[in-house]
Sequence to fold (193 residues):
Amino acid sequence: MAQKINEELNCFVFHMDYLMTTLDRAYPQLDVRIAWDYRKAIANVAPFIGHYLGMSVCYRDFDQDLNLGKHVVKGNRFVLESGHFDFDAISSVFETYGAGELKDNFILIGLVQNKKTAAEFFNDIRKYDTEDEWTYSCDDDGLMKLCEWLVLYSQKMHDSMVKYGFTIYDTSTEREQVFDRIIADIKAEENQT
Fold:
């Protein structure tokens, strides 16, 4: 979806996996290693995301010597793509910038697959994963445990995204048609503003 938004709407994509890996290599003391402790990693990166999003919409109350506001690029568009979000922590930091809520400043899109069973996740991963995917080398038992977790995680993320005003799209079936609808919805929302 992020790639499609990039191609069709000319938005730059920030992949959180890359960002977290870069932060881990540059600042290992932050403990944002994705594969090490998932919960700790997303909790530790949340303040960074909250401040980055806050600074992207509000340029006051910073060190006046920096005068960051004069360097603003109007119409800057980006996609922050991932499943590594602690929305409670991100929002509490973002709100310190006095810019309202995330939903007031960004188009929030949530992709879930709440209509899939663990067995369906398993079959899709085995069918579509390539050697580039870390799940490609998982044994069947390990992959099934991951898929059982994915079912629970998808529901948890759905509930969290609803709480924060995301527009939710289920990609359990007809994924490409859902992606086309999302692009059309984003264009319609942009035309209203």
Residues 42 and 84 are 6 Å apart (CA to CA).
